[in-house]
Amino acid sequence: MKRGEHITLEIDRLNAKGDGVGIFDGREIVVPRAVPGDRALVYLRRKRKGRFEGVIDDLIEPGVERVDPQCVHFGVCGGCRWQDIAYEDQLQIKETLVRRLVAERDLSVDHWRPILPSPVKNFYRNKMEFSFGSSQDGTPQLGLHMRGRYNRVFDLEACWLQSDVSNRIVDSVRTHATRLALPVYDLRNHEGLLRFLVVRDAKRTGQVMVNLVVARYPDDGVDALLEAVLADLHEEITTCIVTLHSGKAQVALGEEEFHVRGEGHMWERCGEMEYAISARSFFQTNTLAAERLYETVCELAGDLAESDVLDLYAGTGGMSLHLARLARSVTGVESVSEAVDDARRNADKNGITNCSFVGALAEELLSDTAGEPLRYDLVVVDPPRAGLHKKAKRGILYLGPGRLLYVSCNADTLAEDLRDFVDGGYEILVAQPVDLFPHTPHCEIVVSLRRTQDWKSHSID
Questions:
Q1: 77, 80, 409, 443: which is the annotated catalytic residue?
Q2: Predicted confidence (pLDDT) per residue in 34-84, tens digit
Q3: Which of 41, 198, 365, 413 has the fewest CB atoms inside 10 Å of its own CB, making it the most exposed?
């Protein structure tokens, strides 16, 4: 077996990234966009670290029936991997994957709940990050990355994930950037101007934020570009920001923001709460499904009338403020200063006085708790995809709250962290998957844990 060959392969499972995996001649073959039960003619495209990656040349027998994808970019774009699979089948595949990853860590869950679907399947995202690129003749491109090609961008015709206004913004920015002959930032020589376009689209309020990330500013070309785009979209864009990013890292963040229109944030409603969201602030990307997520968190939290809650990785206060309506007090911890400012503004906006926010890294704050008495009845964590920092886990185990709620968008790192908590004296009561990401292998999982008699105060060092 070697690169360039064709093999007939049965897909028996998904890996943690959501790619299909089959065994041929005793070797694992990874096949993106394949799902369990597929029997396919697979072309072996490349070999990495002894493992082959293939692509489907012919789907001989599908594990689940395929449907016609709605997006013209499907198969090229790195986003909607499962748009050719009916949504009901997507949910079943996700639930099976989550349960398997947890079971592989030899973890016992008292009660698995069925996955909660997203209220909408298309146009659900409230944030999209678009990248600039250059065609062979130097014409600016604006769109998304090709799957597996992080240095290649394709021109976006229309995306089914965010909104119609988002698609019109992309078209307007690309049109005027081409007309003005503005140079795109080049990753090889680190020259050029245009880097990213980030659009935030509030689903409940209709507010829209445009954030143009550039390599230098002030700049007459950038001003001319935004003036033309704002004229095209009129009042549909409520907030417009320029972010200066002069560093080499290819991220849509920068060292300084300039407010072209609005106050630098937009407002969104989620459940009964209103939230200010700034350019750098984290907010769940599917507002309507996030309402179900927060309802689930509050329900699994139980009776909090006499409880003090610690919410780690609090973002703009999404869960903190919902829990504060039920709890005696809530302390939210967030490392991004702009998000902390938003969270405090959100508490004031919603008239919540028993919720405070601390600007700090979770692991550093917890490392400073040595010698303090037990303060929190419930700890809630919603870490990045990489999971909890080991110092954060040690800090939580040192505090030993009676209950713990873990919210995760990565079942693999979730399972790894759950193993540590179970070994540290906790038991898993309920696991509830909630789908916030239709057409992808990802979902959120809410897990409730309870301290057992096996827990002993752990060293924080």
A1: 409
A2: 999 999 999 999 888 778 999 999 999 999 999 999 999 998 997 899 999
A3: 41
User: Does 1-63 carry CATH code 2.40.50.140?
Assistant: yes
Q: Where exactly are the structural domains of the chain? A: 1-63, 91-120+286-451, 127-266
What would the CATH number be for the domain defined by 127-266? 2.40.50.1070
Beta carbons within 8 Å of 62's beta carbon, 6+ residues apart: 37, 38
Task: Report the residue count for the chain.
Answer: 461
Which residues are within 8 A (CB) of 24 and not within 5 positions of it... i.e. 6 or more apart?
1, 7, 9
Q: What is the pTM of this model?
A: 0.93
Residue with tokens 């004296």: 425
Task: Give 10-residue mean pLDDT values along the chain (461 residues).
Answer: 92 95 94 96 88 94 96 90 96 97 97 98 97 89 83 91 97 98 93 97 97 98 98 97 94 95 95 94 95 98 97 96 97 96 96 97 83 80 95 93 97 97 97 98 97 84 63
- Whole-angstrom Cα distance, residue 1 to residue 60? 20
Q: For residue 249, which amino acid is it?
A: A
Kindly report the backbone phi and psi dihedral angles of residue 114, in degrees, each rounded to the nearest multiple of 5, phi listed first.
Answer: -65, 150
153-173 core/surface letters (b: 16 or more CB in 10 A; e: else)? bbbbeebbbbbeebbebbbbb
What one-character DSSP code corresponds to residue 116?
Answer: B
CB 319 within 8 A of CB 248: no
CA distance 28 to 196: 37
In the numeric block, the tokens 């898993």 are attached to 428
First-last CA distance in the chain = 49
User: Is the distance from CB of 31 to CB of 42 less than 8 angstroms?
Assistant: yes
DSSP letter for each residue of 139-150: -EEEEEEETTEE
Instruction: Identify whether 409 is a catalytic site residue.
Output: yes
C-alpha atoms less than 13 angstroms from C-alpha of 174 in its C-beta half-sphere:
25
Beta bridge partners of 308: 329
Which numeric CATH code is attached to 91-120+286-451? Answer: 3.40.50.150
pLDDT at position 51 is 84
